[in-house]
Specification:
DiNase_FeMo-co_biosyn_sf, globular, alpha/beta, single chain, Nucleotidyltransferase, domain 5, Dinitrogenase iron-molybdenum cofactor biosynthesis domain-containing protein, six-stranded mixed sheet
């Protein structure tokens, strides 16, 4: 199972629009995937707003595998990578579902 995380400010499941960055998001919309199929959608309160470095611990605890963001931000990429988390960027604010579609179709930019 792969857990993909999207920062959002809405509680509209996969119809929520991505927030501009992790620190400004009120919620995290999490898609649990089996292959390319969505097996579960969770909306959790962002436990660490205004603290990009705390996302590393959150990813470890919640077993997040992928973070998807609409903008580049100051994330501790080397620490995320060590934790097995990949970060992808999209060039516009779309819904979680539209962005997920771009993700599975390899249309997102992966940060290294």
């Amino acid at each position: 199972m792969l857990r993909v995380v999207f920062p959002t400010n809405q509680k509209m499941s996969y119809l929520s629009v991505l927030e501009s960055n992790f620190e400004e998001s009120e919620y995290l919309t999490v898609l649990d995937l089996n292959g390319q199929n969505i097996s579960d959608v969770q909306i959790i309160k962002n436990p660490h707003p205004n603290s990009a470095f705390e996302i590393v611990n959150e990813c470890k605890q919640e077993r997040f595998g992928v973070l998807i963001l609409p903008e580049n931000e100051e994330l501790p990429l080397s620490e995320l990578k060590k934790s097995g988390v990949s970060v992808f960027l999209t060039d516009s604010k779309k819904t979680v579902l539209d962005t997920y579609s771009d993700f599975i179709n390899d249309k997102l930019h992966k940060l290294s």
